[in-house]
Amino acid sequence: MLRFGIPAEGPHRTALFGDGAIGAAVVLDRLGVLPRSVAFLAEVVRSGGVRYAAQLPELLPDPAATDIVRPWLEAAGTVARPVVGDETTARWLESVAELIGLRRTSRARGR
Mean pLDDT for each 10-residue chunk of the chain (111 residues)? Predict the structure, then answer.
């Protein structure tokens, strides 16, 4: 989804920000990743670029989460144009962070 949704607007990007973001949020939430960690990663992508971020040794505090997120960033890095693609990737990560937060809030209210 990242390879097709990052470079071009249209149905692929819609799917990336819809189903793709939900799936990513579920996976990371199940690993216990905090929304702020993903939001911070989005800022790193926005500041340094997706290719730069993909090379960092510790993308998220949990090594298992880093192992999952690194291929996502590497895939995005193959198609992301500097600045525009980096911004789209950062916005997607922010969407994932928001969805993780919503899942956590929903669970807390259900208790």
Answer: 93 96 98 98 97 96 96 96 95 98 90 70
